[in-house]
Design brief:
Layout: E1 10-16, H1 20-31, E2 37-40, H2 51-54, E3 58-59, H3 66-82, E4 85-87, E5 90-94, H4 97-112, E6 119-121, H5 123-129, E7 140-144, E8 148-150, H6 152-165, E9 169-171, E10 176-182, E11 185-191, E12 194-203, H7 209-214, E13 223-232, E14 249-252, E15 257-262, E16 265-270, E17 276-277, E18 290-292, E19 309-311, E20 314-316, H8 323-332, E21 341-351, E22 358-361, E23 368-372, H9 379-392, H10 414-426, H11 450-455, E24 458-463, E25 466-472, H12 497-508, E26 510-514, E27 519-524, H13 528-535, E28 547-553, E29 559-569, E30 572-577, H14 580-593, E31 601-602, E32 609-615, H15 619-624, E33 639-644, E34 647-652, E35 661-667, H16 671-681, E36 687-689, H17 692-701, E37 749-755, E38 767-770, E39 773-784, E40 789-796, E41 806-811, E42 814-821
Parallel strand pairs: 1-2, 1-12, 2-9, 5-14, 12-23, 26-36
Antiparallel strand pairs: 3-8, 4-8, 5-7, 6-7, 10-11, 11-12, 13-16, 13-17, 13-21, 14-15, 15-16, 18-19, 20-21, 22-23, 24-25, 26-32, 27-30, 27-31, 28-29, 29-30, 32-35, 33-34, 34-35, 37-40, 37-42, 38-39, 38-41, 39-40, 41-42
Helix pairs in contact: 1-6, 1-9, 3-9, 12-17
């Protein structure tokens, strides 16, 4: 179909942006049988002038995020099928001991995610692949031969042609000027070439996405950042190269640089400069944009196979920002000395506040979908995921960390988005610890007991805007009472032996913990019970005061929610999920599934209430003197409205620590008084404040799953070991995808392991082996201070799940013997 064909007045789905994400989504929608799809772009297609066509066009599959690694692998296959893929490999190098350890963890990530051919290299082996590199300062490299380069214009043309052959229409030089809504849903997309009535609109405009979001008052928290790339003139050592890329890409973490061959020249990508933030509204128009050929196939003295075209996403090269990069580049590649940059530009990419993509349907406007801040490495697979969401309402991957609903309201602030994106760009080549925190815009969300936590020397970290305590410095004296193994290296960063002491104090005494950042909502209305019965897998027809743990599924049977429900009144329920981004995504699913009428109401989460937990063998004694309910006759898994001294609370007898415990829900304004009252009441019982570090290891010993790591959309509740939370006597979403026997067609089950070497520690996201055969991967790990062994929960193939089975866990390229254990390891409730 011609690009200049008449714009239809009706379409099921209209996609804004014909870059890689837009074209891939259109192609995959058409593959699924949805041909009523229209793609518009304000530039020419396929030479749109967006980030896709200006990119140096590398693809790397390895990632610490399992979903991103899966999407990258799929993207590689999609690009190959579309005729836009060239496999030449990539090597990440280390010039410091810290980076070399990181590359060993990259090897863990590659093996966890089945990245073909990944290997560690010596400096001499690096030089065999990249002869012009200087190896004097090299310690080693991490090589993935199946990574490579993308022919972006050919790729877009291939995806477009395949989609057109299936009925999709593409319309270039078509600008969206407005979006009209009716009753909170998208109705009409207005363009400069006509109006199109639609069911859904997908914003795949990347750096322009916020401007489209403004048309319907949907914040899309990203900003364009200009990234430097320059190509040298011809290098004598590369004379005679007949192809523009034959050597692997080189990523230099220690120098904030990457390199790729351009025939007899070399390209240098530079993150070693101050971030250059560009407002979406400041991007030049097509008429005012730079006209230049793409860089991905550029060769010195030959140019590109494509004539120059307008590229609004490119800006003039700023030589002053390149000085440090050039100095380091010539040190690592001495053949660059005396050469000039013959093609340079500052190309814009999207950066979000957490450096993750933005995908999914807006919670505020039905039919308004976003797929933005998705880099070329993930564009093809992301298009398949978006097609699943648009056509089926769900996908087979866990995308909560990427979903548009993950952001708190503070992410609507332009200053927050600007400053966090600045920090993300500035640290994009830093080695990030999984327990690390952002440094900008801290202290946004504080619990009402924050003052008490500071007085106790809390070591705070940030989670979705919340200041959360990892451990309490005031508990240092507990190390006189409890033995805690020391550790060093990566696993010791952002950790303290105090966490182990707090853990053991809960087992021995009583702990008080702030759980306010958990996401708690109230469900009310005459149809509240049938709604929850349909949404959740467990039986929700509880007695008033009853409490039940449960899961929420998608139609495929994957777990998309995991929490606790308490029945407060016949038509009033309280639902508690984990906090942070995952909690917000789960609450959004509840709202999306709620009926449009007034028969069910889902309240706002978190704000307005606080939660304080009391856990341990002395929890009952602590509460007896201050809580007006009879603690001695308070059954487990029940809830009561009562008072703690004069503070009104809903007390829930529930604990994820393996110890007896209560969680006390109170209005926010009473939070400080509640904490202080409990603190004073616990003095005679050895009360200690407990941070999130200890809470995590306590729940591992207790066999409690964590949503987003152990449990998510990729797995069913049976695979996750949550069989008891599924009641087949009820009708619920996803029931048809499950077998009443609990059997599944999947080849993995969540299994408890402990390391045989006492004192040894591994971390999440590492592979599990039987000899040379990978048999699973670790989802959560931490030291069990009560059992004196590191615990690792891992999805393993069924033949390895019996207690007593021996396997090995790989961490930083070292193998640790481990044994499958029955669970829970500790349960004193």
């Amino acid at each position: 179909m011609s690009e200049q064909s008449e714009l239809p007045d009706r379409a099921e789905t209209l996609i804004v942006g014909a870059g890689v994400v837009g074209c891939s989504t259109a192609y995959h929608l058409a593959k699924k049988g949805s041909s009523d799809v229209v793609v518009v772009d304000k530039g020419p297609i396929p030479k749109t002038g967006g980030s896709t066509v200006h990119a140096p066009a590398g693809l790397t599959q390895t990632s610490p995020d399992r979903t991103l690694a899966t999407i990258a692998k799929e993207t590689r296959e999609i690009y190959d099928a579309a005729g836009g893929w060239e496999e030449n490999g990539a090597i990440e190098i280390a010039t410091t001991d810290e980076c070399w350890e990181y590359l060993n963890r990259r090897m863990d990530q590659a093996r966890t995610n089945d990245i073909d051919g990944a290997e560690l290299l010596t400096p001499d082996q690096v030089k065999e692949h990249v002869p012009i590199i200087e190896t004097e300062d090299l310690i080693g490299g991490f090589h993935v031969p199946t990574d490579g380069r993308i022919d972006t214009v050919s790729l877009l043309d291939g995806l477009k042609t395949d989609a057109e052959n299936r009925g999709v229409s593409f319309h270039e030089r078509t600008t969206v000027t407005d979006i009209e809504t009716t009753d909170g849903a998208v109705e009409t997309v207005v363009t400069d070439r006509g109006r199109v009535r639609v069911d859904d609109i997908l914003v795949a405009g990347n750096i322009w996405a916020p401007l489209i979001g403004e048309m319907v008052d949907v914040p899309i928290p990203l900003v364009p950042c200009a990234h430097q790339y320059g190509v040298t003139d011809s290098i004598e050592a590369l004379d005679g190269w007949e192809h523009d890329v034959e050597q692997p890409w080189v990523r230099h973490w220690d120098g904030d640089l990457y390199f790729r061959q351009h025939g007899d020249g070399y390209g240098i990508g530079n993150y070693n400069h101050d971030p250059i933030i560009v407002g979406s509204s400041d991007i030049p128009t097509l008429d005012d944009a730079i006209e230049t050929e793409p860089v991905y196939d550029y060769v010195p003295n030959q140019g590109s196979r494509h004539d120059p075209f307008k590229q609004p996403s490119s800006r003039s090269f700023t030589e002053s920002d390149f000085e440090d990069a050039w100095r380091e580049a010539t040190r690592l590649f001495p053949d660059f000395e005396g050469k000039e940059i013959v093609k340079g530009f500052n190309g814009m990419f999207s950066f979000t506040p957490d450096h993750m993509p933005i995908m999914g349907e807006s919670p505020d406007v039905d039919g308004f979908w976003v797929a933005a801040a998705i880099w070329l490495t993930h564009g093809g697979g992301a298009g398949r995921v978006m097609a699943d969401l648009l056509e089926d309402g769900e996908t087979d991957l866990d995308i909560d960390d990427m979903h548009i609903t993950r952001f708190g309201s503070h992410a609507e602030s332009p200053s927050f988005v600007h400053d966090r994106a600045y920090e993300v760009y500035d640290t994009v080549y830093d080695i990030h610890h999984p327990r690390g925190s952002f440094q900008t815009h801290r202290n946004l969300c504080q619990s009402p007991v924050y003052r008490h936590q500071k007085e106790l020397g809390a070591e705070f970290y940030e989670d979705a805007g919340w200041e959360r305590p990892r451990w309490y410095g005031a508990n240092d004296s507990l190390l006189d009472d409890y033995a805690v193994p020391s550790r060093s290296g990566w696993e010791a960063q952002n950790w303290s032996r105090i966490e182990g002491a707090e853990h053991q104090a809960v087992r021995d005494r009583v702990g008080i913990a702030d759980r306010t950042s958990e996401t708690t909502v109230t469900i009310t209305g005459e149809d509240a019970l049938p709604f929850l019965q349909w949404v959740f897998t467990n039986d929700m027809d509880l007695e008033v005061g009853g409490v039940a743990e449960t899961t929420m599924l998608n139609e495929r049977g994957g777990v998309v929610g995991y929490g606790t429900v308490s029945r407060v009144e016949p038509d009033r329920f309280r639902v508690s999920f984990d906090g942070g981004a995952a909690g917000m995504c789960q609450v959004n699913r509840l709202r999306k599934r709620a009926p449009d009428d007034s028969s069910v109401t889902v309240s706002d989460g978190v704000s307005g209430s606080c939660v304080i937990g009391i856990y341990g063998p002395n929890a009952r004694a602590t509460l007896e003197s201050v809580m007006h309910a009879d603690v001695s006759s308070f059954p487990r898994s029940t809830a009561r409205d009562t008072h703690v001294k004069s503070v009104p609370v809903t007390a829930v007898r529930d604990s994820d620590t393996g110890e007896d415990g209560w969680e006390l829900h109170a209005p926010t304004e009473y939070g400080g008084n509640l904490w202080n009252t409990l603190w004073q009441a616990g003095q005679d019982h050895g009360i200690v404040a407990v941070g999130d570090g200890a809470l995590n290891t306590l729940r591992l010993e207790a066999g409690q799953r964590a949503y987003g790591t152990d449990v998510h959309a990729e797995f069913t509740p049976f695979q996750a070991g949550l069989d008891d939370l599924v009641d087949f006597d009820t009708e619920f979403v996803g029931r048809a995808a499950l077998r009443p026997t609990g059997e599944t067609d999947s080849s993995v089950e969540l299994t408890c392991l402990t390391l045989d070497d006492r004192g040894a520690v591994v971390m999440d996201g590492v592979p599990v082996f039987d000899g040379t055969r990978r048999v699973g991967h670790v989802t959560s790990a931490g030291y069990g201070y009560d059992i004196d062994a590191c615990i690792a929960y891992a999805y393993l193939q069924p033949e390895y799940t019996a207690a007593g089975t021996s396997v090995t866990v790989e961490y930083q390229n070292e193998r640790f013997d481990a044994t499958v254990r029955n669970e829970p390891l500790v349960n004193r409730t």
